[in-house]
Each structure stands twice: as structure tokens, then as C-alpha cells.
Amino acid sequence: ATASCSLTIVNGSLIYTREDLEAISLNLTGSYTLMNDIDLAGENWTPIEGAFKGILDGNGYSIKNMTIEASEDKIGFFRYIHNPAVIKNLKFVNVSITSTRYKIGAIAGYSITGVAGDDKTIKLINIGIESGTIHGIGEVASLIGDIADCSNSSEKTIITDCYSNAVLSTVSSY
């Protein structure tokens, strides 16, 4: 007798490969869960375009060897994140990000809160930048290059239990 089983993911997608990561751009409000470490070595990562408003759960896994060489502003795994984005339980190992512009970070180049929706926060929870280098002209950071939170106290980017061992460099005093 042969047993069979099926798995249905409700309101989400399981991520196993680089191609699965790239497909996040097709639904920026989706819910995604990494199911293993993903090695991006060998090809420059193109930051996901558009405002990511979904959930990315690293599930304790790593994105390894992400290399970005760019000449644009707002560079990272995502170009932008927007409320109500949640990115959690994720590690980046051996990042190499270089841009000749501004707003550079491993997670995103830019985040903005306080626009339409009930949840006006962005949450980064339990994220580690294990190793690597991040370089730009200005507004260079480990996680997000530029955080544009509104002045209302309920509209903010919340960063909890995150760390970085990346080397940051900039040519600007800004």
C-alpha cells in the first residue's frame, strides 16, 4: 500500500530556491517562509522592486553570499519595505553590497511607515547580519539604509533582537 499526503499552504508560500526568492516580487503582500538555507553565490542579486508589505519568515535559516553591485539609491535585499511588513527569524551570511549611491542596507535601502492600513508599523525581529561588507556613498546601515517613519508614535519601524557583524563603509560624512 502506498500512502500519500498533501500539504496546503494557506496564505503563504514556502521558499526553497533563489527562484522562489525572486518570485516574491510577483506578490509584495504575500507571506513567505524559508525552508532551508539559500546560497545566492555566483550571480549578482537584483533587489526586489516595489514596496514589500508582506511577511518574510526566515524560519531560522540563512541567505548566504548575497552580492549586490549597483549604481542606484535604495539598495538591499528589498529596495523598499512598507508598513505592515514583517521580516523575522532570518540570517544573512557573507553579504557584499556596494553602491555608488545612497540608502544602502542588507534588508532594504528604504522603509516608510504611516501610509494606509490598520497596522502602521514595520517589524524586524530576530535578524542577524552574520558577516560581510556594506558600502555606499551615504546612509549606509546594516539593516535599512534610511528609515522614514512618520511623526505619529504609532507609525514606526520596530527593530527587536537584531544584530550585525558586517563592516560598514561610506565616503560621506552624512
Description:
The chain is an all-beta fold and 174 residues long. The mean pLDDT is 90. It is built from one helix and 19 strands. The termini are far apart. Strands 1, 2, 3, 5, 6, 9, 13, 17 and 18 form a nine-stranded parallel β-sheet that branches. The chain has one helix spanning 18-22, and strands at 13-15, 31-34, 38-39, 48-52, 55-57, 62-64, 67-70, 78-82, 86-93, 95-99, 102-104, 108-112, 122-129, 132-136, 138-140, 144-148, 157-160, 163-164, 167-170. The longest helix has 5 residues, at 18-22. Helices cover 3% and strands 47% of the residues. β1, α1 (18-22) and β2 form a beta-alpha-beta unit.
Helix content: under 10%
What proportion strand? over 45%
The major pleated sheet works out as: 9 strands, parallel
Distance between the termini: 68 Å
Radius of gyration: 16 Å
User: What characteristic shape results from the CA principal axes?
Assistant: globular
- In DSSP terms (H or I, runs of 4 or more residues), the helix count works out at 1
- Compute the average pLDDT: 90
Per DSSP E runs of 2 or more residues, the count of β-strands stands at 19
Low-confidence stretches: none
Which structural class do you get from the secondary structure elements?
mainly beta
Helix/strand order: EHEEEEEEEEEEEEEEEEEE
